[in-house]
Design brief:
- The complex is a heterodimer of chains A (about 110) and B (about 160).
- Chain A has about 110 residues and is an all-alpha fold.
- Chain A contains 2 helices and no strands.
- In chain A, helix 1 runs antiparallel to helix 2.
- The model of chain A has no long low-confidence stretch (mean pLDDT about 85).
- Chain B is mostly helical.
- Chain B is built from 5 helices and no strands.
- The radius of gyration of chain B is 24 Å and the shape is elongated.
- The model of chain B has no long low-confidence stretch (mean pLDDT about 90).
- Classes of the chains: A mainly alpha (about 110), B mainly alpha (about 160).
């Protein structure tokens, strides 16, 4: 039995789409909130410097801590993004597993 | 169906199969980059989070007083170093250089910088607020990824 490529692609995309949409829906507000928090903290360090409440060495350590924290946030977004793509792929493969394996004759997917 | 279109259809089908396997291979490489779930890493992260939360509760009431000087917190930092060392070793053993492991390395760097700052003398309440916000942001991000890894194991 020949596979209908366009039909398979349509089924796979339909299965993957909700997963990826949820990822973007969840990731965007989180990224925005954390970027705002990072910026506010940098502004606070500047304010403490202007008020002479903080030394250059202490300010540098504070900035490094904030940078590491924001880097961690970005790594989490990247990690969850990869996991979501994998989840979407699992859904897409799951949607066409039956017909593809039947057409090939071996349970490959 | 002519023999040519038969071959073309077969080629299209073969191309589809190859694409699927290539896609699966690429995704599995990417998944390795994220790292796998490990219950001990997860548990130790939560313990570090609790230690830091207690530290910030004390810091908020003691900031600017003699009670908050570094000498009174030496035991806290020694305990934190032991916990972070356990976490780094376990994380590297399970997921070296993965995203999850890089996050542990960044947390370790931040705990060392916190100690350096405390040695310099944390003078005011605003600095505590900055540190608390930075660590909360970082720990929340780490726990978020751990939860996603755990969810993947369960599903």
């Amino acid at each position: 039995m020949a596979l209908n490529i366009s039909e398979l692609v349509k089924e796979m995309l339909n299965a993957a789409k909700p997963v990826l949409q949820n990822f973007w829906k969840d990731a965007r507000p989180y990224a925005e909130k954390e970027a705002k928090s990072f910026a506010l903290n940098l502004a606070m360090i500047e304010k403490l410097k202007l008020q002479k409440k903080i030394s250059k060495e202490a300010a540098s350590l504070h900035v490094e801590i904030q940078k590491n924290s924001f880097r961690t946030v970005l790594l989490t977004i990247e990690g969850i993004g990869i996991l979501s793509v994998s989840e979407a792929l699992d859904a897409a493969i799951g949607a066409v597993r039956g017909p593809v394996n039947k057409a090939i004759g071996w349970a490959l997917l | 169906m002519t023999p040519v279109s038969k071959i073309f259809r077969m080629k299209k089908s073969r191309l589809f199969q190859i694409s699927i396997f290539l896609l699966l291979f690429l995704v599995s490489c990417k998944l390795t980059r994220v790292g796998g779930y490990d219950a001990i890493v997860d548990k130790t992260i939560n313990e570090v989070q609790q230690q830091l939360s207690s530290f910030f509760v004390n810091a908020e009431t003691e900031a600017g007083t003699e009670a908050f000087s570094y000498v009174h917190y030496k035991n806290f930092y020694d305990g934190l170093k032991i916990e972070m060392s356990t976490l780094r070793i376990r994380s590297a053993a399970v997921n070296e250089n993965s995203i999850a492991d890089q996050e542990v390395v960044l947390l370790d760097e931040n705990t060392r910088k916190l100690e350096q700052l405390h040695k310099l003398g944390i003078q005011n309440y605003e600095e505590i607020g900055l540190l608390k916000s930075g660590f909360e942001q970082q720990l929340a991000a780490i726990i978020k990824l751990q939860l996603a890894l755990k969810k993947r194991v369960k599903s």
